């Protein structure tokens, strides 16, 4: 009996959790005036919508004080859901296909971004404006590129919409397509003169976007058309940083094969090896080292070397990898702390890391710059690693 009871309650808890999650998702969608109507349009059925309208709900109401969604009509909301029936009903009731929310976004933009050819074609047939821009300067071409609507992209360019039209902050349709991994759209835009090195105000290029999407085919297309593999943002972040950050070794290899700098670092000295260590990507750390990455480069955040970071992250395999490829075992923070990797290992009681460091020449008697305490003294004070430091 106890087992049956437990099984029943376990199942009941799961059902309740799913119900609660569903309720939260719907409740979090839209709030305030007209919330029930908007949530019904977004997640309910056409019949439920008609029922609310019959009860006197204002079908022409707009969202207010809803952050990014402020100013949206029910038609905006309907364009983000599956199916066309609700959209057709709302248009038949007189909702404006060219209504702009507080950010200047139209229903057609939402449909295009969702990649729905059916909705886009219907809205166009009802007079939706393909030349509209939102307040940030994003055109329909920007949304269509992100949604992967290759036919619509071609039509818009044929209608003289500039493939290099940029937003107020410099984002272009190519950024949008590359970031969504839309290979066909990227090829179309490139064939129509889109600039592969277009840069936002912060220095982000379509190649950065493509790498972040993880689509190696798009990366290769951009590179073949002259995209700069060493383009860096205002903070010094390169496409290679993005590739390493996502752990995409294939893209890392493609970029480096086209001249991406393995020693690239941000303005604060954050190298690719630092990044790979923080993400615990042992294979990428090894690959970067084998291709010339600097194992002793210091990151300005406390002047940490890769070895400091590997120990802090308790990655003994990476610690060994660094030490066997020239990492200095006694390297220390350059500032007031002068902390060595061994100090870190002892402080966190990372025994395996401490053992590897000692086996590769780490000096347990070097004192830090703040407390004037050696690793051996620290171990004794904290009661850590007595066997390792027995004769130190």
From TrEMBL:
Keyword Repeat applies: yes
A matching Pfam family: Ank
Keywords (A to Z) from UniProt: ANK repeat, Repeat
Record-linked InterPro entries: Ankyrin_rpt, Ankyrin_rpt-contain_sf
Top-rank taxon: Bacteria
ANK repeats: 70-102, 103-135, 169-201, 202-234, 235-267, 268-298, 302-334, 337-369
The keyword tRNA-binding is assigned to this record: no
PANTHER family: ANK_REP_REGION DOMAIN-CONTAINING PROTEIN, ANKYRIN REPEAT, PH AND SEC7 DOMAIN CONTAINING PROTEIN SECG-RELATED
Protein name: Ankyrin repeat protein
């Amino acid at each position: 009996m106890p087992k049956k009871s437990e099984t029943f309650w376990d199942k009941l808890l799961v059902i309740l959790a799913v119900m609660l999650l569903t309720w939260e998702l719907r409740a979090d969608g839209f709030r305030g005036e007209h919330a029930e109507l908007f949530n019904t349009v977004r997640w309910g059925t056409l019949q439920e919508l008609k029922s609310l309208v019959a009860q006197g709900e204002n079908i022409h109401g707009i969202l207010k004080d809803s952050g990014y969604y402020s100013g949206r009509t029910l038609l905006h909301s309907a364009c983000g859901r599956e199916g066309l029936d609700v959209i057709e009903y709302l248009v038949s009731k007189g909702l404006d296909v060219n209504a702009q929310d507080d950010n200047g976004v139209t229903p057609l933009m939402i449909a295009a971004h969702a990649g729905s050819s059916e909705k886009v074609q219907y809205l166009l047939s009802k007079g939706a404006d393909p030349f509209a821009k939102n307040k940030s300067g994003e055109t329909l071409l920007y949304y269509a590129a992100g949604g992967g609507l290759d036919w619509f992209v071609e039509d818009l360019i044929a209608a003289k919409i500039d493939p290099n039209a940029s937003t107020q902050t410099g984002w272009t349709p190519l950024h949008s397509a590359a970031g969504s991994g839309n290979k066909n759209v990227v090829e179309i835009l490139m064939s129509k003169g889109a600039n592969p090195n277009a840069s936002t105000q912060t220095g982000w290029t379509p190649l950065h976007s493509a790498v972040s999407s993880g689509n190696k085919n798009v990366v290769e297309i951009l590179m073949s058309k002259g995209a700069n593999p060493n383009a860096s943002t205002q903070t010094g972040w390169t496409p290679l940083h993005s590739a390493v950050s996502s752990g995409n070794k294939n893209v890392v290899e493609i970029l480096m094969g086209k001249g991406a700098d393995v020693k690239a670092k941000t303005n604060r000295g954050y190298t690719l090896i630092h990044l790979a260590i923080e993400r615990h990507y042992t294979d990428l750390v090894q690959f970067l080292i084998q291709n010339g990455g600097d194992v002793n480069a210091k990151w300005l955040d406390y002047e940490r070397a890769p070895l400091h970071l590997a120990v802090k992250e308790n990655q003994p395999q990476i610690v060994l990898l660094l030490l066997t490829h020239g990492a200095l075992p006694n390297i220390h923070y350059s500032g007031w702390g002068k902390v060595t990797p061994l100090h870190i290992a002892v402080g966190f009681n990372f025994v395996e890391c401490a053992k590897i460091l000692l086996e590769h020449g780490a000096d347990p008697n070097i004192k830090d710059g703040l407390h004037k305490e050696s690793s051996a003294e620290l171990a004794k004070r904290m009661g850590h690693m007595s066997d390792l430091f027995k004769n130190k």
